[in-house]
Amino acid sequence: MVNVRLGDRGSAIGRAVSHTSRWSLRLILIALGAALIFWLGAQLWVIVLPVLLGLLITTVLWPPAAFLRRHRWPPALAAAAVLLTGLIVLGGVITLVTVSIAGSFNEIAAGASSGLERIREWLVGPPLNLGQSQLDDALSSVTRQLQQSVSSIASGVLTGVGAVTSGVVTGVLALVLAFLFIKDGPHFLPWLRGIVGPTAGSHLSEVAVRIWRTLVGFIHTQAIVAMIDAVFIGVGLVIVGVPLALPLAVITFLGGFVPIVGAFVAGALAVLVALVSNGFTAALIVLAIVVAVQQLEGNVLQPILQSRSVQLHAAVVLLAVAAGGTLYGIAGAFLSVPIVAAAAVVLRYLSEQLDGRAGQPAPASGSSGGLLDEDRPAPGEMGVSEQPADVQEERTGGAGSGAGT
Question: Is 311 helix (H, G, I), strand (E, B) or coil?
């Protein structure tokens, strides 16, 4: 009897070790696959980044383009019209900000001079009591350090010029791709189904529609968060009496679409204007307002809203932004959430298919009403047996399709 129990225990341990080793090997292969994907993304970043930016621009411009197409505008003309209108609106906003700043340039310059003078008096007087000679020595030390670092500064300037040039090329390529996506986007799913066949094409079409809906939700949420930042900070600037409150609010809104750096630059600019125009106390008040609003937005509002729009937990959103910023910088921080959300869409769809094969009902996904949805196959386009379970339920349940072309 004792030998049987020992044998059973040994067999159970062996099965557990074998099971653990198999799963360990699977996890190692998954990790290697993920590392390969990240490596390929880094090598092809010059292609991947414009494509992703073009898709995000398309999510913003597709609704007016779809409206024009429904009113019998040719696809190319509708795409060109909405893209040019978007560029004109953006150029108008930039012009408004530039003109407002230029109109108050003399006031800001005079305020900057007096502000620097107040800072010098504060450093010389109590409680620091540095003395004019100490300030002169510190200024001389900084000047010598800059003279010794001329070569490094020059190389840094050249690097910055190269980065700006690369950014301009990426932006132009993203705009061209956005035009092509808006013009020919509705033909993507039929082309995909023709390439891979009706069975696999139905699954890929459903996943593509869900990913598109996720991208739309992400952009809308980002716009809401940026608008809240701009409104609260703009109201705070008006209450404090800081000039250029409207242009600063517009800059804050635009900066909200650039994670980390955008908020920092917009907030620093607001504090600087308050310092040179209203004094040190007003600058501290504006700094407190900016920090409070950005902390509320970054740690509470944005994770909650994005977690709802992209159906991810707030902790996952924060970790995705941190990982994207570490791996690919500012662009990675901005694009990390929609990329992770797209991966989650694929995993959820696979889970639904597994549940359907196991005899459990798979939930219907509904219609996205977007760029990809309008060319999803009609009920008679393919056999019911070739469609995934959730697509069958959606169609048999009478779910509406997207807008027609």
Answer: coil
DSSP string for residues in 264-293: HHHHHHHHHHHHHHH-HHHHHHHHHHHHHH
Quick one: 4 exposed, middle or buried, by C-beta within 10 A (0-12, 13-18, 19+)?
A: exposed
Task: For residue 167, give the nearest of 333, 49, 289, 278 by alpha carbon.
Answer: 49
d(C-alpha 293, C-alpha 235), whole Å = 11
What is residue 85's DSSP assignment? Answer: H
Six-digit token string for 80: 């060109």
Dist. CA 84–CA 299, nearest whole Å: 36
The greatest distance separating any two alpha carbons of the chain, rounded to the nearest whole angstrom, comes to 98
CB distance 335 to 266 below 8 Å: no
Name which of 296, 290, 294, 257 is nearest 272 in CA terms.
290
Tokens found for residue 186? 């509705």
**Length reported for the chain:** 405
- Tell me how far apart the alpha carbons of residues 3 and 294 are, in angstroms, rounded to a whole number: 68
Residues in contact with 288: Cβ distance below 8 Å, sequence separation at least 6, in sequence order? none
Paired tokens of 296: 């509320």
Q: What is the 3-state secondary structure (H, E, C) of 124-166?
A: HCCCCCCCHHHHHHHHHHHHHHHHHCHHHHHHHHHHHHHHHHH
Q: Tell me the per-residue pLDDT of 199-244, one tens digit each, with 9 for 90 and over.
A: 888 888 888 888 888 888 888 887 888 888 888 888 988 898 887 7
Whether cis (ω within 30° of 0) applies to the bond prior to 127 is yes
Work out the angle between the directed axes of helices 105-124 and 280-296 (0-180°, nearest 10): 100
- Using CA atoms in the order 339, 342, 346, 352, what is the torsion angle rounded to 10 degrees? 140
Question: 300-334 burial, b for 16+ CB within 10 Å, e for fewer?
Answer: ebbbebbbebbebebebbbebbeebbeebeebbbb
Average pLDDT of each block of 10 consecutive residues along the chain (405 residues)?
A: 59 85 91 87 83 87 90 91 91 78 64 64 63 64 62 54 71 90 86 83 87 83 84 89 82 73 77 79 88 79 70 76 78 80 87 72 50 49 40 41 38
